[in-house]
Specification:
three-stranded antiparallel β-sheet, about 40% strand, about 120 residues
Length: about 120
């Protein structure tokens, strides 16, 4: 649905927004808890990225963990700024933690240069 300027209805998508920020930016979600992430990369035989998800709040909760990769050519013409490697939804009790492991294809390291991983909620 297109925006209606007469009643300032923004429409059903962010596609038609001009200068305003999004009402709910990417990564925004309601949670009754707070979260902290630790990232460990193991490149022994295969590339495994382990994410320790800690629930630092007072309530049990579920969260979707997303792992992104940024290669040396990220953001260059026809290359994405970052690529989604994987995601997993986990349940963590209050003040508890959960380890999530992602296996990465060795192919992402074919490019020479600096590689980085980022983790975050959905």
């Amino acid at each position: 649905m297109r925006p209606d300027q007469s009643d300032e209805y923004p429409g059903r998508t962010y596609r038609f927004y001009n200068d305003k920020g999004a009402v709910y930016p990417f990564g925004y979600g309601l949670s009754y808890s707070t979260w902290q992430y630790s990232l460990y990369v193991d490149v022994a035989r295969e590339v495994t990225v382990s994410v320790n998800v800690s629930n630092t709040g007072h309530m049990d909760g579920s969260i979707s963990v997303l792992l992104f990769h940024k290669g040396p050519q990220s953001g260059v013409v026809e290359n994405p700024i970052k690529s989604l490697i994987g995601f997993e939804k986990v349940f963590v009790t209050a003040h508890g933690f959960q380890m999530v492991r992602f296996r990465c294809r060795q192919k992402i390291f074919d490019e020479k240069g600096e590689h980085a991983f980022e983790v975050g909620p959905s």
